[in-house]
Amino acid sequence: MEKNDRNTRLIIRGTDAPFMNALRRTVLAGVPCMAIDEVVIIENSSVLRDEIIAHRLGLIPLKTDLDGYNLPEECPCKSEFGCNLCRVSLALDAEAKEGTRTVYSGELISENPDIVPVSDKIPIVKLVKEQKLKLEAYARLGKGKKHAKWQPVSMCTYKYFPQIKIDDKRCDACGKCVEICPRKVLVKDGNGIEVRDLMACTLCQDCVDVCPQNPPAIDVSWDENAFIFNLESTGALPPKRTMTEAIKILDKQLKEFGRQIKVKKSAKS
Amino acid sequence: MIIPVRCFTCGKLIGDKWEEFARRVKTGEEPGGVLDSLGIKRYCCRRMLLSHVEVIDDLLRFYEEAEKRKQAGNRYYY
Q1: Looking at the domain that runs over A34-151, which CATH code has it been given?
Q2: N or C: at which end does chain B have fewer Cβ atoms within 10 angstroms?
């Protein structure tokens, strides 16, 4: 319905609320993405403490290459420190030589040119002349379950697909419902009320309550089996990849669940 | 202190938008309009920029002054 490199809005039909919620939760907590996880500070004479800088670095979203890297716990290297397949190192060496300046995320030098901050313009710290910041950071794959910095999305929601019915025979086009609607879904059209933007409806029922007719001439309901799914990526993964990955993970989890039930059943009998 | 990297509530990246926001508001633009044009829709992210005070700039002034005195050779700067 709507799509660009960060936001996606789609209509999903023929499912139910539990499935949509499972999908939503998988996107939030189950889809891995890259984030800085460990920082070695070599020199820091800035006004911010080491921990604050490390935290800020951790929150910077990194463009993620899911196919090229393994989750640290699934990596064959089994090393706590990580190997080239489960870890990317980024270096930062900044010094204010002439006057006060801001250190931006663009100054992080990554060992893999594909794993870079989403934006080059994120301020990390401000330095005064003769202050220095030198550090090495290690980025790993992780899941939103462990820390919100590994969430590939900053928003993931779904809502029922709205259905608005207007009874033309009883509606006298008083315009009260048009006025009260917080999302401006309805519009007055000659001697009737028309739906202008159905997708914006939040199902608040204000228009139904305000209608002077009894019973109301307008009816707001929703389709139980159709949803509007809304996803806003942090830029770590494209929205489409996030969705396909979430479906893959959910599928894997459900299969595993089914297998365990079967084992339990056969153990009983 | 310094602009947070992400929105506290939803996690949207806002750190990179601060400088443009501050500059445009300073030139007299309506903050709400600037936020709209930066694509910041939710009120959780909007308040991050609207209510932010860059305290680090004030703090750095002390270091800048100290540096100036050092340059001038004032032994009493400590």
Answers
A1: 2.170.120.12
A2: C
CATH topology classification for A2-28+154-231: Gyrase A; domain 2 (3.30.1360)
Q: Do B5 and A59 touch (CB under 8 A)?
A: yes
Burial A210-235 (b: 16+ CB within 10 A, else e): bbeeeebbbebeeeeeebbbbbbbbb
pTM exceeds 0.90 for this model: no
Tell me the pLDDT tens digit for each residue of A4-48.
778 899 999 999 999 999 999 999 999 999 999 999 999 999 999
Say whether the ipTM exceeds 0.90.
Answer: no
A 114-133: CB under 8 A from B = 118-123, 125-126, 128-131
- In angstroms, the CA A14 to CA A17 distance is 10
For residue B6, list chain A residues with Cβ-Cβ distance below 8 A.
59, 154
